[in-house]
Design goal:
Elements lengths: L3 H5 L6 H21 L6 H31 L3 H8 L1 H25 L1 H8 L2 H19 L3 H4 L4 H28 L12 H31 L2 E3 L4 H17 L2 H12 L3 H9 L9 H13 L5 E3 H5 L1
Antiparallel strand pairs: 1-2
Helix pairs in contact: 2-3, 2-5, 3-4, 3-5, 3-9, 3-10, 5-6, 5-7, 7-9, 9-10, 10-14, 11-14
């Protein structure tokens, strides 16, 4: 019986074989769903925008988590994911191309519906920035463009793009769970809203924990170990716990916190055009990152040599 590592070495599961396999499956489902819709009316096209992007979201989440999974869970699967990160990213780009086609159709042939039912300036800014990042990331994934920029520029495009493209769907699903259901005229969240919010949250928590693991390794190289029961270590653990609580309780704290953050005139105006401002969907992750930073900061560390004395 073949092992997991042997199966993952299959040509069809690597490189362009993997890309073609995943894109073929995605295309088949998009075409089948499109046949169930009446795309001669704007509502049908709008439905395809939402459906097609749901194929894209899991792949950007995977791309965000891959390098961190290799740090936290080294093994055949994480090695395979790392090896195929470029192709998984290209699958995400292919899925977004489907959405772009339907957005073009809706905004071109059903302009009145688009601007009355779909268009929102800040969403337009976020979406446009996302597509610009995506185009730049795809181009710089290949040598013809990669060799024309330096490593710092490449890192800015790739990492900046990954974070932004993760943040957009994650924030959308946060709003779908913790804001819109409590407004008049909006329906309850659907199953995919919960699934994609949890997966997006988990993808970034993995990055935070991997970052913390690397910090601990650097400290251990200097002969230090962290004291979890120190004030700073305990404070970090509490913050991490608070972050997880905040991640599931947005409907309780959103209104008062948002009111305070939006009270300055400049902040209220910025919320109209600045992507993601004032960052409510990301508060839980910011708090968790602060907790991990405290736990691994070194101020809560005790020198091993001193402990032996």
């Amino acid at each position: 019986m073949k092992s997991t590592a042997d199966i993952l070495r299959s040509k069809v599961l690597n490189g362009w074989g993997l890309f073609l396999l995943l894109c073929s499956v995605m295309t088949a489902f998009n075409v089948l769903h499109m046949q169930e819709q009446d795309i001669t009316v704007p509502e049908g096209v709008s439905e395809m925008i939402g459906y097609s992007v749901r194929w894209a979201v899991p792949f950007i989440y995977i791309v965000v988590a891959i390098s961190s999974l290799k740090i936290l869970f080294p093994g055949a699967v994480s090695n395979w994911l790392m090896k195929n990160r470029k192709y998984i990213g290209l699958v995400f780009a292919y899925a977004m191309a489907w959405q772009a086609v339907f957005i073009f159709i809706l905004s071109t042939f059903y302009r009145d519906y688009y601007f009355s039912e779909v268009y929102y300036f800040r969403d337009e800014v976020e979406g446009s920035v996302g597509y610009i990042f995506l185009a730049a990331m795809v181009m710089t994934s290949f040598n013809f463009a990669r060799k024309r920029i330096n490593s710092a520029q490449w890192s800015l495009i790739q990492k900046g793009g990954i974070y932004f493209l993760w943040a957009y769907p994650f924030s959308v699903y946060w709003w779908n769970l913790f804001y819109y259901p409590y407004q008049a005229g909006y329906s309850s969240p659907e199953l995919h809203d919960y699934v994609f919010y949890v997966l997006g949250f988990a993808a970034f928590v993995v990055r935070i924990f991997a970052w913390g693991k690397l910090r601990l390794k650097r400290l251990s190289k200097h002969g230090d170990s962290f004291e979890l029961l120190s004030v700073q270590g305990a404070s970090g653990v509490v913050l991490v716990a608070v972050g997880f609580f905040v991640s599931v309780s947005g409907h309780h704290w959103f209104s008062p916190v948002s009111a305070v953050l939006s009270s300055p005139t400049w902040s209220a105006e910025a919320a109209l055009w600045l992507p993601f401002w004032p960052l409510e969907p990301f508060f839980s992750l910011i708090i968790i990152a602060m907790g991990v930073m405290l736990i691994t900061s070194g101020k809560g560390m005790s020198n091993l040599a001193e402990q032996k004395n």
